[in-house]
Amino acid sequence: MIGKKQVDFMKRFFLLLLPKLALVLALSSNAAQAHEVVPTVADLTVAEGTTEMALRINLEAFLAGVDLDMIEDTDAAPQAADYDALRALSAKELAVRAPDLLAQWNTLPLLSVEGTPVILESVDLLVPTGVNPDLPRIAEWTIAGETPEGATITVTWPEGGGDLVIRQLGVDAPFTGLIAGGDSSPAISLGGGDQLGGWQTFTSYIPVGFDHILPKGLDHILFVLGLFFLSMRLGPLIWQVSAFTLAHTVTLALGALGLVSIPGSIVEPLIAASIVYVAVENIFARGLTKWRPFVIFGFGLLHGLGFASVLAEFGLPEDQFVPALIGFNVGVEVGQLAVIAMAFVLLWLAVLAARRARLTGEEELVTEYPVMFRAVSMTGSMMIAIIGVWWVIERTLL
Protein backbone atom coordinates (compact mmCIF):
# COMPACT_ATOMS: atom_id res chain seq x y z
CA MET A 1 0.00 0.00 0.00
CA ILE A 2 1.06 3.58 -0.55
CA GLY A 3 1.56 5.56 2.65
CA LYS A 4 0.83 9.21 3.37
CA LYS A 5 4.51 10.14 3.00
CA GLN A 6 4.61 8.57 -0.45
CA VAL A 7 1.44 10.37 -1.51
CA ASP A 8 2.76 13.74 -0.32
CA PHE A 9 6.06 13.24 -2.05
CA MET A 10 4.33 12.11 -5.27
CA LYS A 11 2.24 15.30 -5.29
CA ARG A 12 5.28 17.54 -4.95
CA PHE A 13 7.31 15.53 -7.45
CA PHE A 14 4.51 15.52 -10.02
CA LEU A 15 3.89 19.26 -9.68
CA LEU A 16 7.61 19.88 -10.13
CA LEU A 17 7.86 17.82 -13.29
CA LEU A 18 4.46 18.61 -14.82
CA PRO A 19 5.84 21.57 -16.87
CA LYS A 20 8.64 19.34 -18.15
CA LEU A 21 6.12 16.69 -19.17
CA ALA A 22 4.17 19.30 -21.13
CA LEU A 23 7.38 20.40 -22.83
CA VAL A 24 8.27 16.83 -23.82
CA LEU A 25 4.81 16.27 -25.26
CA ALA A 26 5.03 19.53 -27.17
CA LEU A 27 8.41 18.70 -28.63
CA SER A 28 7.23 15.23 -29.63
CA SER A 29 3.88 16.39 -31.00
CA ASN A 30 5.17 16.49 -34.56
CA ALA A 31 6.75 13.04 -34.50
CA ALA A 32 4.25 11.80 -37.06
CA GLN A 33 5.62 14.48 -39.39
CA ALA A 34 9.22 13.59 -38.60
CA HIS A 35 11.79 15.77 -40.31
CA GLU A 36 14.37 13.38 -38.97
CA VAL A 37 18.01 14.40 -38.78
CA VAL A 38 20.27 12.07 -40.74
CA PRO A 39 24.05 12.27 -41.19
CA THR A 40 25.52 13.83 -44.29
CA VAL A 41 27.43 11.32 -46.41
CA ALA A 42 30.40 12.41 -48.57
CA ASP A 43 31.88 10.10 -51.20
CA LEU A 44 35.40 11.29 -51.98
CA THR A 45 36.98 10.66 -55.41
CA VAL A 46 39.93 12.07 -57.36
CA ALA A 47 40.35 12.42 -61.13
CA GLU A 48 42.91 14.46 -63.12
CA GLY A 49 43.91 16.77 -60.32
CA THR A 50 40.35 17.42 -59.14
CA THR A 51 38.89 16.20 -55.89
CA GLU A 52 35.14 15.64 -55.88
CA MET A 53 32.86 15.28 -52.89
CA ALA A 54 29.49 13.74 -53.71
CA LEU A 55 27.23 14.70 -50.81
CA ARG A 56 23.93 13.26 -49.68
CA ILE A 57 22.65 16.19 -47.65
CA ASN A 58 19.58 17.83 -46.15
CA LEU A 59 20.08 21.26 -47.71
CA GLU A 60 17.07 22.81 -46.01
CA ALA A 61 18.50 22.12 -42.54
CA PHE A 62 21.83 23.77 -43.38
CA LEU A 63 20.28 26.76 -45.11
CA ALA A 64 17.92 27.33 -42.19
CA GLY A 65 20.81 27.28 -39.73
CA VAL A 66 19.48 24.31 -37.74
CA ASP A 67 21.96 23.02 -35.14
CA LEU A 68 22.20 19.42 -36.24
CA ASP A 69 24.68 18.63 -33.46
CA MET A 70 22.00 18.87 -30.78
CA ILE A 71 18.63 17.79 -32.19
CA GLU A 72 17.11 14.63 -33.57
CA ASP A 73 14.20 16.19 -35.43
CA THR A 74 14.13 19.55 -37.20
CA ASP A 75 10.61 20.15 -35.91
CA ALA A 76 12.17 20.63 -32.46
CA ALA A 77 14.62 23.32 -33.67
CA PRO A 78 14.08 27.06 -33.09
CA GLN A 79 14.44 27.47 -36.87
CA ALA A 80 11.65 24.95 -37.58
CA ALA A 81 9.52 27.58 -39.37
CA ASP A 82 12.42 28.58 -41.63
CA TYR A 83 13.14 24.94 -42.34
CA ASP A 84 9.52 24.25 -43.27
CA ALA A 85 9.49 27.30 -45.57
CA LEU A 86 12.58 26.00 -47.36
CA ARG A 87 11.10 22.51 -47.46
CA ALA A 88 8.08 23.95 -49.27
CA LEU A 89 10.24 25.40 -52.07
CA SER A 90 10.46 23.63 -55.41
CA ALA A 91 13.64 21.75 -56.25
CA LYS A 92 14.68 24.54 -58.62
CA GLU A 93 14.06 27.28 -56.05
CA LEU A 94 16.07 25.43 -53.42
CA ALA A 95 18.97 24.80 -55.81
CA VAL A 96 19.32 28.55 -56.35
CA ARG A 97 20.20 28.98 -52.66
CA ALA A 98 22.88 26.28 -52.50
CA PRO A 99 25.77 28.60 -53.58
CA ASP A 100 25.22 30.64 -50.40
CA LEU A 101 26.00 27.58 -48.34
CA LEU A 102 29.05 26.70 -50.44
CA ALA A 103 30.42 30.21 -49.94
CA GLN A 104 30.24 29.69 -46.17
CA TRP A 105 32.03 26.38 -46.47
CA ASN A 106 34.83 27.90 -48.56
CA THR A 107 35.37 30.46 -45.81
CA LEU A 108 35.74 27.68 -43.25
CA PRO A 109 37.39 26.08 -45.36
CA LEU A 110 35.67 22.76 -45.88
CA LEU A 111 38.62 21.25 -47.74
CA SER A 112 42.30 22.06 -47.37
CA VAL A 113 45.61 20.66 -48.63
CA GLU A 114 48.26 20.76 -45.93
CA GLY A 115 46.69 23.89 -44.46
CA THR A 116 46.00 25.63 -47.77
CA PRO A 117 42.26 26.16 -48.48
CA VAL A 118 40.78 24.49 -51.56
CA ILE A 119 38.09 26.58 -53.26
CA LEU A 120 35.17 24.30 -54.02
CA GLU A 121 32.65 24.83 -56.80
CA SER A 122 29.27 23.25 -57.42
CA VAL A 123 29.44 20.64 -60.19
CA ASP A 124 25.99 19.10 -60.01
CA LEU A 125 22.97 19.31 -57.73
CA LEU A 126 19.98 17.01 -57.79
CA VAL A 127 17.12 17.89 -55.48
CA PRO A 128 14.55 15.08 -55.61
CA THR A 129 10.95 15.83 -56.44
CA GLY A 130 7.79 14.11 -55.30
CA VAL A 131 9.12 13.46 -51.78
CA ASN A 132 6.50 13.26 -49.05
CA PRO A 133 6.52 16.77 -47.49
CA ASP A 134 6.52 15.21 -44.03
CA LEU A 135 9.88 13.56 -44.72
CA PRO A 136 13.38 15.04 -45.14
CA ARG A 137 14.38 15.77 -48.74
CA ILE A 138 17.92 14.47 -49.26
CA ALA A 139 19.71 16.20 -52.11
CA GLU A 140 22.66 14.80 -54.06
CA TRP A 141 25.23 17.55 -54.41
CA THR A 142 28.62 17.17 -56.06
CA ILE A 143 31.23 19.82 -55.25
CA ALA A 144 34.83 19.84 -56.46
CA GLY A 145 38.14 21.69 -56.25
CA GLU A 146 41.62 21.45 -57.74
CA THR A 147 44.16 19.51 -55.70
CA PRO A 148 47.75 18.46 -56.54
CA GLU A 149 48.40 14.86 -57.52
CA GLY A 150 49.15 12.69 -54.49
CA ALA A 151 48.19 15.46 -52.07
CA THR A 152 47.04 14.96 -48.50
CA ILE A 153 43.75 16.66 -47.64
CA THR A 154 41.80 17.50 -44.50
CA VAL A 155 38.03 17.86 -44.33
CA THR A 156 36.64 20.30 -41.74
CA TRP A 157 32.93 20.04 -41.00
CA PRO A 158 31.12 23.18 -39.75
CA GLU A 159 29.94 23.41 -36.18
CA GLY A 160 26.24 22.60 -36.01
CA GLY A 161 26.51 20.41 -39.12
CA GLY A 162 25.76 17.16 -37.33
CA ASP A 163 27.67 14.05 -38.35
CA LEU A 164 29.57 13.65 -41.61
CA VAL A 165 30.43 10.22 -42.96
CA ILE A 166 33.44 10.32 -45.32
CA ARG A 167 33.91 7.42 -47.74
CA GLN A 168 36.92 7.43 -50.04
CA LEU A 169 36.30 5.63 -53.33
CA GLY A 170 38.44 4.32 -56.18
CA VAL A 171 41.68 3.70 -54.26
CA ASP A 172 43.33 0.87 -52.35
CA ALA A 173 42.85 0.82 -48.56
CA PRO A 174 40.38 3.75 -48.67
CA PHE A 175 39.65 5.99 -45.72
CA THR A 176 36.21 5.64 -44.15
CA GLY A 177 35.44 7.71 -41.10
CA LEU A 178 32.99 9.81 -39.16
CA ILE A 179 33.50 13.37 -37.97
CA ALA A 180 31.14 15.48 -35.87
CA GLY A 181 30.19 19.10 -36.36
CA GLY A 182 33.09 21.41 -35.57
CA ASP A 183 35.71 18.67 -36.04
CA SER A 184 38.24 17.89 -38.75
CA SER A 185 39.20 14.60 -40.35
CA PRO A 186 42.69 13.18 -40.03
CA ALA A 187 45.00 13.76 -43.00
CA ILE A 188 43.68 11.72 -45.95
CA SER A 189 46.01 10.73 -48.76
CA LEU A 190 44.27 11.09 -52.12
CA GLY A 191 46.21 8.07 -53.31
CA GLY A 192 44.69 5.84 -50.65
CA GLY A 193 46.32 3.83 -47.88
CA ASP A 194 44.65 5.61 -44.94
CA GLN A 195 42.14 2.93 -44.06
CA LEU A 196 41.47 2.94 -40.34
CA GLY A 197 42.68 -0.02 -38.34
CA GLY A 198 40.43 -2.13 -36.14
CA TRP A 199 41.09 -0.15 -32.94
CA GLN A 200 40.64 3.21 -34.66
CA THR A 201 37.36 2.07 -36.20
CA PHE A 202 36.17 0.72 -32.86
CA THR A 203 36.85 3.97 -31.02
CA SER A 204 35.39 6.17 -33.76
CA TYR A 205 32.00 4.40 -33.60
CA ILE A 206 31.65 4.58 -29.81
CA PRO A 207 30.49 8.25 -29.92
CA VAL A 208 27.92 7.32 -32.60
CA GLY A 209 26.27 4.81 -30.26
CA PHE A 210 26.51 7.08 -27.23
CA ASP A 211 25.02 10.02 -29.14
CA HIS A 212 22.01 7.91 -30.09
CA ILE A 213 21.22 7.58 -26.37
CA LEU A 214 22.41 10.94 -25.05
CA PRO A 215 21.14 13.39 -26.06
CA LYS A 216 19.10 12.15 -29.02
CA GLY A 217 17.45 8.92 -27.86
CA LEU A 218 14.55 10.11 -25.72
CA ASP A 219 12.53 6.94 -26.33
CA HIS A 220 15.46 4.73 -25.28
CA ILE A 221 16.16 6.99 -22.27
CA LEU A 222 12.57 6.60 -21.06
CA PHE A 223 12.73 2.82 -21.50
CA VAL A 224 15.94 2.58 -19.46
CA LEU A 225 14.42 4.80 -16.76
CA GLY A 226 11.46 2.44 -16.74
CA LEU A 227 13.86 -0.39 -15.91
CA PHE A 228 15.45 1.70 -13.17
CA PHE A 229 12.13 2.63 -11.55
CA LEU A 230 11.10 -0.98 -10.86
CA SER A 231 13.12 -1.43 -7.69
CA MET A 232 15.82 0.30 -5.62
CA ARG A 233 17.74 -2.99 -5.35
CA LEU A 234 20.66 -3.57 -7.73
CA GLY A 235 19.76 -7.19 -8.52
CA PRO A 236 16.53 -6.49 -10.48
CA LEU A 237 18.24 -3.71 -12.41
CA ILE A 238 21.14 -5.98 -13.42
CA TRP A 239 18.76 -8.71 -14.59
CA GLN A 240 16.74 -6.29 -16.70
CA VAL A 241 19.68 -4.42 -18.22
CA SER A 242 21.42 -7.72 -19.02
CA ALA A 243 18.35 -9.07 -20.81
CA PHE A 244 17.88 -5.80 -22.70
CA THR A 245 21.56 -5.60 -23.69
CA LEU A 246 21.73 -9.20 -24.92
CA ALA A 247 18.57 -8.81 -26.99
CA HIS A 248 19.37 -5.52 -28.69
CA THR A 249 22.90 -6.75 -29.44
CA VAL A 250 21.44 -9.69 -31.36
CA THR A 251 19.06 -7.68 -33.55
CA LEU A 252 21.58 -4.87 -33.96
CA ALA A 253 24.03 -7.35 -35.48
CA LEU A 254 21.35 -9.05 -37.62
CA GLY A 255 20.02 -5.70 -38.82
CA ALA A 256 23.48 -4.35 -39.60
CA LEU A 257 24.22 -7.49 -41.62
CA GLY A 258 20.99 -7.02 -43.56
CA LEU A 259 19.60 -10.34 -42.36
CA VAL A 260 16.61 -8.74 -40.61
CA SER A 261 14.76 -5.66 -41.79
CA ILE A 262 11.44 -4.41 -40.43
CA PRO A 263 9.99 -1.04 -41.49
CA GLY A 264 10.22 1.80 -39.01
CA SER A 265 6.46 2.26 -39.30
CA ILE A 266 6.16 -1.06 -37.44
CA VAL A 267 9.20 -0.89 -35.13
CA GLU A 268 8.69 2.64 -33.79
CA PRO A 269 5.11 2.16 -32.49
CA LEU A 270 6.18 -1.11 -30.86
CA ILE A 271 9.10 0.64 -29.16
CA ALA A 272 6.63 3.21 -27.81
CA ALA A 273 4.38 0.38 -26.61
CA SER A 274 7.32 -1.21 -24.80
CA ILE A 275 7.84 2.03 -22.89
CA VAL A 276 4.19 2.01 -21.81
CA TYR A 277 4.41 -1.61 -20.66
CA VAL A 278 7.43 -1.24 -18.37
CA ALA A 279 6.03 1.98 -16.90
CA VAL A 280 2.59 0.50 -16.17
CA GLU A 281 4.07 -2.67 -14.68
CA ASN A 282 6.24 -0.53 -12.38
CA ILE A 283 3.06 1.03 -10.97
CA PHE A 284 1.41 -2.30 -10.10
CA ALA A 285 4.37 -4.61 -9.44
CA ARG A 286 6.22 -4.66 -6.11
CA GLY A 287 9.43 -6.10 -7.53
CA LEU A 288 10.97 -8.17 -10.29
CA THR A 289 8.52 -10.79 -11.55
CA LYS A 290 9.79 -14.05 -13.01
CA TRP A 291 8.54 -13.16 -16.50
CA ARG A 292 9.75 -9.55 -16.66
CA PRO A 293 13.34 -10.32 -17.85
CA PHE A 294 11.89 -12.36 -20.73
CA VAL A 295 9.51 -9.54 -21.64
CA ILE A 296 12.40 -7.07 -21.49
CA PHE A 297 14.40 -9.39 -23.75
CA GLY A 298 11.60 -9.26 -26.32
CA PHE A 299 11.47 -5.49 -26.14
CA GLY A 300 15.25 -5.39 -26.46
CA LEU A 301 14.93 -7.12 -29.81
CA LEU A 302 12.73 -4.24 -30.99
CA HIS A 303 15.11 -1.57 -29.71
CA GLY A 304 17.98 -3.35 -31.43
CA LEU A 305 16.18 -2.95 -34.74
CA GLY A 306 15.86 0.76 -33.97
CA PHE A 307 19.59 0.96 -33.30
CA ALA A 308 20.30 -0.93 -36.53
CA SER A 309 18.32 1.59 -38.58
CA VAL A 310 20.48 4.39 -37.17
CA LEU A 311 23.67 2.48 -37.88
CA ALA A 312 22.53 1.84 -41.45
CA GLU A 313 22.43 5.59 -42.03
CA PHE A 314 26.13 5.83 -41.23
CA GLY A 315 27.16 2.69 -43.04
CA LEU A 316 29.76 0.24 -41.80
CA PRO A 317 33.19 -0.12 -43.44
CA GLU A 318 33.24 -3.53 -45.10
CA ASP A 319 36.79 -4.37 -44.01
CA GLN A 320 36.19 -3.23 -40.42
CA PHE A 321 32.60 -4.32 -39.94
CA VAL A 322 33.04 -6.09 -36.61
CA PRO A 323 35.05 -3.34 -34.81
CA ALA A 324 32.58 -0.71 -36.00
CA LEU A 325 29.59 -2.77 -34.86
CA ILE A 326 31.13 -3.48 -31.46
CA GLY A 327 32.14 0.15 -31.02
CA PHE A 328 28.60 1.34 -31.75
CA ASN A 329 27.17 -1.17 -29.28
CA VAL A 330 29.66 -0.15 -26.59
CA GLY A 331 28.61 3.47 -27.12
CA VAL A 332 24.97 2.51 -26.65
CA GLU A 333 25.79 0.65 -23.43
CA VAL A 334 27.83 3.55 -22.04
CA GLY A 335 24.93 5.88 -22.82
CA GLN A 336 22.47 3.60 -21.00
CA LEU A 337 24.74 3.34 -17.96
CA ALA A 338 25.09 7.13 -17.95
CA VAL A 339 21.29 7.46 -17.84
CA ILE A 340 21.07 5.04 -14.90
CA ALA A 341 23.94 6.77 -13.07
CA MET A 342 22.29 10.18 -13.44
CA ALA A 343 19.00 8.72 -12.21
CA PHE A 344 20.72 7.37 -9.08
CA VAL A 345 22.39 10.71 -8.41
CA LEU A 346 19.20 12.73 -8.91
CA LEU A 347 17.22 10.40 -6.65
CA TRP A 348 19.84 10.62 -3.92
CA LEU A 349 19.86 14.42 -4.17
CA ALA A 350 16.08 14.39 -3.79
CA VAL A 351 16.40 12.30 -0.64
CA LEU A 352 19.03 14.63 0.79
CA ALA A 353 16.85 17.64 0.02
CA ALA A 354 13.92 16.01 1.81
CA ARG A 355 16.15 15.22 4.74
CA ARG A 356 17.21 18.84 5.07
CA ALA A 357 13.58 19.87 4.93
CA ARG A 358 12.11 17.60 7.56
CA LEU A 359 14.41 14.80 8.76
CA THR A 360 16.75 14.97 11.74
CA GLY A 361 18.80 11.76 11.87
CA GLU A 362 20.66 9.21 9.73
CA GLU A 363 18.38 6.44 10.96
CA GLU A 364 15.35 8.33 9.64
CA LEU A 365 17.16 8.91 6.33
CA VAL A 366 17.72 5.20 5.85
CA THR A 367 14.07 4.53 6.64
CA GLU A 368 12.87 7.31 4.32
CA TYR A 369 14.90 6.32 1.25
CA PRO A 370 12.71 3.32 0.19
CA VAL A 371 9.58 5.40 0.80
CA MET A 372 10.81 8.21 -1.43
CA PHE A 373 12.09 5.82 -4.09
CA ARG A 374 8.64 4.25 -4.33
CA ALA A 375 7.04 7.68 -4.58
CA VAL A 376 9.48 8.77 -7.30
CA SER A 377 9.05 5.43 -9.05
CA MET A 378 5.27 5.70 -9.12
CA THR A 379 5.25 9.32 -10.25
CA GLY A 380 8.03 8.88 -12.82
CA SER A 381 6.44 5.71 -14.20
CA MET A 382 3.08 7.45 -14.62
CA MET A 383 4.72 10.27 -16.57
CA ILE A 384 6.66 7.81 -18.74
CA ALA A 385 3.45 5.88 -19.43
CA ILE A 386 1.64 9.06 -20.50
CA ILE A 387 4.42 9.97 -22.93
CA GLY A 388 4.57 6.41 -24.24
CA VAL A 389 0.82 6.27 -24.86
CA TRP A 390 1.00 9.56 -26.74
CA TRP A 391 3.81 8.22 -28.93
CA VAL A 392 1.86 5.04 -29.69
CA ILE A 393 -1.11 7.15 -30.83
CA GLU A 394 1.10 9.45 -32.92
CA ARG A 395 3.06 6.66 -34.57
CA THR A 396 -0.01 4.67 -35.53
CA LEU A 397 -2.91 7.08 -36.05
CA LEU A 398 -1.60 10.60 -36.68
Features:
alpha+beta, 2 domains, 6-stranded mixed beta sheet, 11 helices, 10 strands
Oligomer state equals: single chain
The computed structural class is alpha+beta
Nearest-angstrom radius of gyration? 24 Å
* Low-confidence segments: 13-34
- Ends apart, CA distance between termini: 38 Å
Give the H and E element order.
HEEHHHEEEEEEEEHHHHHHH
User: What is the mean predicted local confidence, pLDDT?
Assistant: 83
Description:
The chain has 398 residues and is α+β, with helices and mostly antiparallel strands. The protein has two domains: 4-33 and 208-397, no CATH class; 40-195, no CATH class. It contains eleven helices and ten strands. The longest helix is centred in the C-terminal third of the chain and has 38 residues, at 321-358.
Task: Summarize, please.
The protein is an alpha+beta fold. The chain is 56% helix and 13% strand. It has two domains: 220 residues, no CATH class; 156 residues, no CATH class.
Secondary-structure blueprint of this entry?
Elements: H1 4-27, E1 40-47, E2 50-57, H2 59-63, H3 80-87, H4 91-107, E3 111-113, E4 116-117, E5 121-126, E6 139-146, E7 152-155, E8 164-168, E9 176-179, E10 188-189, H5 198-213, H6 218-228, H7 234-256, H8 264-284, H9 292-314, H10 321-358, H11 362-397
Parallel strand pairs: 1-8
Antiparallel strand pairs: 1-2, 2-6, 3-4, 3-7, 5-6, 7-10, 8-9
Helix pairs in contact: 1-11, 5-10, 6-8, 6-10, 6-11, 7-9, 8-9, 8-11, 10-11
